[in-house]
Amino acid sequence: MCGSIRYRPDGVNQYTQTQMYARVLKLLPALLLNWLRYGRALDILITHSPPFGIHDEISQAHQGLKALNLLIRWAKPRYHFHGHTHFYRQNLEPSTTQCGKTQVTNIFPYKIIEVNNA
């Protein structure tokens, strides 16, 4: 899922918290269908931005998206990989955080991740 918090009025792929909630809500019917078919809604969530309060920053440009918190709580993916926040400020350790059943990982600048099939 592309996009970050709106921090410039004319920013491309930048959304308000409300706009991102609307984008996430559009996904829910397909995720519900996955849940009914496969017994799970989502295995891996890949986004540009982090969820709010996890690996995000205070600055407007690097705040997390609250709609992703809702998506993680509802869909319970095993993994959520995101970028957008950078480690040069040394305030983003650890780069992996457990959020319920979801392992949230900041993959900036890159990570090689082995995903098991369990």
Structure description:
This protein has one domain (15-106). The mean pLDDT is 89. A 4-stranded mixed sheet has the order 3-4-6-5, with no helix packed on it. The protein has a two-stranded parallel ribbon with strand order 1-2. The chain is of the alpha/beta class. 27% of the residues lie in helices and 18% in strands.
Task: Please give the largest β-sheet.
Answer: 4 strands, mixed
- Element pattern in H and E: EEHEHEEE
Shape summary: globular
- From the N-terminal CA to the C-terminal CA, the straight-line distance is 24 Å
SS strand fraction: 15-25%
DSSP summary, beta strand count: 6
Structural class: alpha/beta
How many structural units, i.e. domains? 1
Radius of gyration of CA atoms, rounded to a whole number: 14 Å
Pick out the low-confidence regions.
none
User: How would you state the average pLDDT, rounded?
Assistant: 89
**How much helix, percentage-wise, in residues?**
25-40%
Short description:
By secondary structure, the protein is an alpha/beta fold.
Give a topology summary.
Blueprint: E1 4-5, E2 14-15, H1 17-38, E3 44-47, H2 66-75, E4 79-82, E5 96-99, E6 102-106
Helix pairs in contact: 1-2
What keyword list fits this structure?
27% helix; 118 residues; 2 helices; alpha/beta
